[in-house]
Amino acid sequence: MGEVKRKRGRKPKNSKADSLDFPPPTTATATSVAMVMDDVFSVSNVELMDPASTSKPHQNRRGRPKKLSKHMENPDKFPQLSPSRRGPRGVENGEFTASGDVFPSDIALERVQPEWPGIVRVVPAMDAVVKVFCVHTEPNFSLPWQRKRQYSSSSSGFVIGGRRVLTNAHSVEHHTQVKLKKRGSDTKYLATVLAIGTECDIAMLTVDDDEFWVGVSPVEFGELPALQDAVTVVGYPIGGDTISVTSGVVSRIEILSYVHGSTELLGLQIDAAINSGNSGGPAFNDKGNCVGIAFQSLKHEDAENIGYVIPTPVILHFIRDYEKNGAYTGFPILGLEWQKMENPDLCEAMGMKKDQKGVRIRRIDPTGPESKVLKPSDIILGFDGVDIANDGTVPFRHGERIGFSYLVSQKYTGDSATIKVLRNSETLSFNYQLATYRRLIPAHNEGKPPSYYIIAGFVFSTVSVPYLRSEYGKDYEYEAPVKLLDKLLHSMPQSPDEQLVVVSQVLVADINIGYEDIVNTQVLAFNGKPVKNLKSLANMVESCDDEFLKFDLEYQQIVVLRTSTAKAATLDILATHCIPSAMSNDLKT
């Protein structure tokens, strides 16, 4: 037989069959502590939709160009339309705005498209969606006497009643200037930040210029959607300057970890695309009502199109909290850690009856109001009349259960709550006031500049999550010292004003020879007196009349300096490093 001739054209590629084998499982390194609101949430795969303004270059399609149709080859034979059939056909941002010609494909679509009398499609109030421009100036936690270089970002927001605008808290964090631009406008209006809810990642803005509010209708809020309900996310993500619309369905409703606030609140998981710049944009239901705010997404090689939305119960809680108190006061939290009671032997040993269910208290925050009425090993049977299961869940909706922390988060700071516990086989009920929880290592500084104190080149500072991120990068959970991480995850403050004070660094000088390698080491005591916070340390050092300054550090290290020499050398060290003051402003008062 003769050689088979290959047909003309491009040589086919060697295609490989897609493997159906799953990749080897990877261990999740995220650490989440069950202290009702979680000590610190730091899942590396879940990231905030950081405001962005970059766009990807357009890529041309590969292949041969399409052939022109016969009508396009012969313009004289192009079908003419009657004047009644001619009209604007251009589409911009979901609305018919620009005029254009009608091509044959459009004619066919119009000819076969059915008419549905009595059915009106609800279009979301996209004119209420605005673009947020923010200039950020973050504090430098490693050099707390100065700030970092400013940078700009863009995100999304939407107008609500009362001449207010909602967006994400991380979109305006450390803001120095915020501007808003309406859809279809070329004017940017200066905005004022009214409130920032760090835990729920929501911020409220307003604009003083009356021109901004002309022709803008506020968004109406809808009810919490059900599973498989359609949602439409509207915003200004990367890839362009005009408004963007993506659609999907509600995939999951549960207590989610909020990355920015390092807390756990109710959240929606959707399969609509949420990209950088979508932050603060509304999510509409099929009735055109807002059911949430886009704020973060899951980035993982085994997951696609997983976005998260702040639901209306959390949004309305934030708005009512601001209206009630004139400021954001936060979400109340039970200051305790609990253990599941799913083992029958454990239940029997704790004196529980067959019909009793609940969770066991492991530890209680000594600074919280719960410490006055609850004790370790108490079994929490119910909260505000709702029974708690052995796995810590309560009934939510038909066929759904949710963590009982949802019941706590629905209340406001200062509200009364009734908690039913089992103690020594006896059922007790307590009524107390709810409060917010303060961590030993806070997740945020609430927009305040970091505190510091300098003596003889020793820079003393307080530890927070932003401080750890500044010192060790975004992977601080792996890079930071073990003792600091242990305190971050498990330590509770013993007093309301307790702080974790460390020697951040030593500015080298003649007086501190031999101490240069001390970095991020906790200060335990000064001249035999325990150090509770940075202000108490600064006051003790400034008022010290002893011959020597003695600092007791962890790992049994000590630092000894002559008092007179140390205080005299401080001024020269400050001048050498261009530091304006030996202490931050909050320590001077």
Largest sheet: 7 strands, antiparallel
How is the CATH topology of the largest domain named?
Thrombin, subunit H
Number of helical segments? 11
Tell me what the CATH architecture of the largest domain is.
Answer: Beta Barrel
> Which outline best applies?
globular
Rg from Cα? 30 Å
Mean pLDDT: 83
First and last CA, distance: 100 Å
Q: What percentage of amino acids are in beta strands?
A: 25-35%
Question: What is the CATH class name of the largest domain?
Answer: Mainly Beta
Helical percentage: 10-25%
Low-pLDDT windows of residues: 1-44, 53-113
Q: How many β-strand stretches?
A: 30
Number of separate structural domains: 3
- Label the structural class: alpha+beta
Protein name: Protease Do-like 9
Keywords: Hydrolase, Protease, Serine protease
Region (Disordered): 1-27, 48-97
Biased composition (Basic residues): 1-14, 58-69
Structure report:
The structure is a single chain. By secondary structure, the chain is of the alpha+beta class. It has three domains: 126-325, Thrombin, subunit H; 336-434, PDZ domain (Pdz3 Domain); 452-577, Alpha-Beta Barrel (N-terminal domain of MutM-like DNA repair proteins), CATH 3.20.190. Helix content is 15%, strand content 29%. Strands 24, 25, 26, 27, 28, 29 and 30 form a seven-stranded antiparallel beta sheet that branches. A hairpin with a 2-residue loop joins β18 (379-383) and β19 (386-387). The chain is globular, with a radius of gyration of 30 Å. Residues 1-27, 48-97 are annotated as: Disordered. GO terms for molecular function: serine-type endopeptidase activity. It comes from Cucurbita maxima (Pumpkin). This is Protease Do-like 9. Keywords: Hydrolase, Protease, Serine protease.
